[in-house]
Write a structure and sequence with these properties.
The complex is a heterodimer of chains A (435) and B (144). By secondary structure, chain A is of the alpha/beta class. In chain A, 31% of the residues lie in helices and 24% in strands. In chain A, strand 15 and strand 16 form a beta hairpin. The longest helix of chain A has 22 residues, at 14-35. The radius of gyration of chain A is 22 Å and the shape is globular. By secondary structure, chain B is an alpha+beta fold. The chains are: A alpha/beta (435), B alpha+beta (144). The interface between A and B is medium-sized, with 17 and 21 residues.
Chain lengths: 435, 144
C-alpha cells in the first residue's frame, strides 16, 4: 500500500495542478518584479510586464536566471523579502568563485520540511523510524534540510553529520537506524568501513536510504543496496532552488517526482534556450512559485535530464525527472567528445569487480588531449601475476572505448590513494589550460 | 611442503618500494627472498618472509593490496644442469611454471629456487618422487 504525506497535492489531477501553478506563478512574478531589482531590469529589458504572465503557458516569456546572477548580487541582492522576515541562511559550497547565499522565511522552512516529508513517506518512513542524517550540517543544505523533513514526519532524528566514519558505523548499529541520508559516495564509504570493521549488513537495521547531492548511476544504486541491505532512493535538490526535496523518488525507482505545487520544471536546449517537448533530454530549468525569501524565476540548473509525464505506478501525478546524467558544467569535452564522469562510473561498475573509486585526469600535451582514468585496485581484483592485472586494465580500456568512442589510458593505483570524500566526490582533475 | 608467498601491489611512484620494505623492516620481519615484476605503471612485489602471518597483518593495516599464494621451494645443488634437471622433471609431469626466482642459501653450496606453478600439490609430489629436496616453510624462514 503506497503511502503519501500529502495525498491531495501529490495525486492532484493535471488540470487542477496547472490552475494552482498558474495562480502561484502570477503572484510570484508580481512580487519579485516589485522587490528584486534584477528581475525588474531583466523583464523590462525583455519587454515583459507582470500582467503578461497569466498562466503556466506564459512562462516561456520570462527571462532566464543564471548562477552568475546570484554571484553578481552576492550576498542578498536576490532576496524578495525584508531581512527581518528571513529566519535562516544557507550557502552553496562555492567550489569555484563566490559562494551563493540563499534565505528562507518561516513559511519557506515549513514548505521545505513538507517536501522532504513527502520524500521520506514515499520511502516508507513513519514516526516509528530512526533517521541517521550524515549529510553535513551547516551552510550546506543537505543536513538541516532532511533533518527538518524527518522531524515533520515524527521520525527519531540522529543528527550525525559528516566525518568519523567508524563512529558512524557504530552509531548505525547501536542506535538501530532504519533510514539514512547522505551522498551516494559516502554510503559506499560507510559500506567499506563496515567491512573493515567486520560488521555485516545483517547487523544493522537500515531499510531505506535517501541519497543525493551528486550524480550517481543505476549500477551504484545496485552496489549500495547489496552492500548495505537497503532500498536506495534518489533525492534531488539544489541550494538555489531549495536544497534536498525539490524532487524525490518513489518505490517505483524510475525517476524523481518534482514537487510541482512549489516548482515548475521546464527542459530547454542549453545552447539556444528553446523549450523542448516532453521526453527530450536537455537542461532542467526551475521556477519557484511558493517561495517567499528567495524565489528563482526560470533558473538554469545546468543539470541535463529528461522529464516523464503521466500517472506513475505509485499513483502520484507529479512529473518525473530521470536521474541527471551530469551537470552541463561537469561535462568534459575530450578530443571533441562529450564525457560525463557518471559514464565512467557506469563502465567501472558494469565490469563487476571494481570498487567505484576512480579519478579522471585530463591534460593537453602537444595540442592533443590526454585522457587517463586512475582506478583503485581492490583486493578482489589483485592476483600475483602481471598478465591478470594487465588483462583487467585492458577490459576497462575496451569498455570505456565502447561507451565513449575514445581511448583512455587506464592506470591501476593503490587503494586509498584517491581522496575519499564525506561530501561530494572529486572525480575529475583537468590540467588543461584552455582559457 | 608449500611455502606462502605474499604479493603486494606497488604503484610506480618514487619511494613506494622503499616504503613497503621499510614497513616490514620496522616490524622486525626479515625478507628471505623476493622478486619484483614490473610494468610501466605498476609492479608486483613477491616476498617470502620469516613471519608471514605478522607480515600480512602489518601490510593490511597499512592499506596495502596483497594476495597470498602457495609456491614451491626447491633446494638445487649449485652445479651445471642443476636447474635444468628439475625443470625436466616438471615438464614431464605436465606441471607449468608461471614464474620462478632464485636465492642463494647461506651455506653457499646450494641455490634455493621458488617456483610458482599451476598445480602445487602435483609439483611437490613429482619432485619428491625424484628425490629432489623440497623446502619447508621452516627451512625457508631459517637458513639453508
Amino acid at each position: 500500500m503506497e503511502r503519501y504525506w500529502n495525498e491531495e497535492m501529490e495525486r492532484m489531477d493535471r488540470k487542477s495542478l496547472e490552475t494552482l501553478q498558474s495562480y502561484r506563478l502570477m503572484r510570484t512574478v508580481r512580487r519579485v518584479y516589485e522587490n528584486v531589482p534584477l528581475y525588474r531590469e531583466r523583464m523590462d529589458a525583455a519587454g515583459v510586464k507582470p500582467e503578461d504572465i497569466r498562466s503556466v503557458a506564459d512562462l516561456h516569456k520570462l527571462p532566464f536566471t543564471y548562477k552568475q546572477d546570484l554571484r553578481d548580487t552576492y550576498p542578498y541582492g536576490m532576496f524578495a523579502v525584508p531581512m527581518n522576515e528571513v529566519v535562516r541562511l544557507h550557502a552553496s559550497s562555492g567550489t569555484t568563485g563566490k559562494k551563493i547565499v540563499v534565505g528562507y522565511t518561516a513559511n519557506d522552512l515549513d514548505m521545505w520540511a513538507e517536501c522532504c516529508a513527502r520524500a521520506l513517506t514515499a520511502a516508507g518512513a513513519d514516526s516509528n523510524d530512526f533517521m541517521h542524517v550524515s549529510y553535513g550540517y551547516g551552510l550546506f543544505t543537505g543536513g538541516l534540510g532532511l533533518h527538518g523533513g524527518a522531524e515533520k514526519v515524527g521520525m527519531t532524528v540522529i543528527p550525525v553529520s559528516t566525518g568519523n566514519t567508524k563512529q558512524q558505523v557504530t552509531i548505525l548499529k547501536d542506535f538501530g537506524s532504519t533510514y539514512i541520508c547522505c551522498t551516494p559516495s559516502y554510503a559506499l564509504n560507510l559500506a567499506e568501513t563496515m567491512k573493515e570493521m567486520g560488521i555485516t549488513k545483517d547487523e544493522i537495521q537500515l531499510r531505506a536510504g535517501l541519497f543525493g547531492a551528486e550524480p550517481w548511476t543505476e549500477e551504484m544504486r545496485q552496489d549500495i543496496e547489496d552492500k548495505l541491505g537497503l532500498k536506495a532512493l534518489d533525492i534531488y535538490g539544489l541550494t538555489e532552488i531549495l536544497g534536498p526535496g525539490v524532487a524525490y523518488e518513489c518505490s517505483a525507482q524510475t525517476g524523481m517526482h518534482i514537487n510541482e505545487d512549489h516548482f515548475i520544471a521546464e527542459i530547454i536546449d542549453p545552447d539556444t534556450g528553446e523549450v523542448l517537448p516532453d521526453g527530450a533530454q536537455g537542461e532542467l530549468v526551475f521556477t519557484c512559485i511558493s517561495k517567499e525569501a528567495f524565489p528563482m524565476l526560470r533558473y538554469r540548473t545546468r543539470d541535463i535530464v529528461q522529464l516523464e509525464r503521466g500517472v506513475c505506478s505509485c499513483g502520484r501525478t507529479f512529473v518525473k525527472m530521470k536521474k541527471p546524467m551530469g551537470r552541463s558544467d561537469d561535462m568534459l569535452i575530450i578530443r571533441g567528445v562529450n564525457v560525463f564522469p557518471s559514464q565512467i562510473e557506469s563502465v567501472l561498475l558494469s565490469l563487476g569487480n571494481t570498487a567505484p573509486y576512480y579519478q579522471i585526469i585530463v591534460d593537453r600535451v602537444n595540442n592533443t588531449d590526454t585522457f587517463e582514468i586512475q582506478v583503485e585496485i581492490s583486493p578482489e581484483m589483485f592476483t600475483d601475476t602481471v598478465k591478470n592485472l594487465e588483462e583487467q586494465a585492458k577490459q576497462i580500456r575496451e569498455a570505456v572505448h565502447t561507451t565513449l568512442g575514445i581511448q583512455a589510458k587506464i592506470t591501476l593505483v593503490e587503494p586509498k590513494t584517491i581522496p575519499r570524500t564525506e561530501g561530494k566526490a572529486v572525480h575529475v582533475v583537468d590540467h588543461r589550460k584552455l582559457h | 611442503m608449500l611455502i606462502r608467498q605474499i604479493s603486494i601491489f606497488i604503484e610506480n611512484r618514487p619511494g613506494r618500494l622503499a616504503a613497503v620494505t621499510q614497513l616490514l623492516g620496522d616490524a622486525g620481519i626479515d625478507i628471505r627472498s623476493l622478486c619484483l615484476a614490473d610494468t610501466r605503471d605498476f609492479g608486483i612485489l613477491r616476498l617470502i618472509v620469516n613471519q608471514p602471518d605478522r607480515a600480512i597483518g602489518v601490510l593490511k593495516d597499512a592499506d596495502c593490496t596483497i594476495t597470498v599464494t602457495n609456491v614451491v621451494g626447491v633446494k638445487i645443488p649449485d652445479r651445471p644442469n642443476g636447474l635444468a634437471e628439475i625443470l625436466q622433471i616438471l615438464n614431464r609431469a605436465d606441471v607449468n611454471v608461471e614464474y620462478m626466482y632464485a636465492f642463494v642459501g647461506q651455506t653457499g653450496d646450494c641455490a634455493n629456487v621458488i617456483f610458482r606453478v599451476d598445480n602445487e600439490e602435483k609439483c611437490v609430489q613429482v619432485l619428491q618422487e625424484n628425490d629432489v629436496a623440497v623446502l619447508t616453510n621452516q627451512e625457508v624462514s631459517g637458513d639453508c
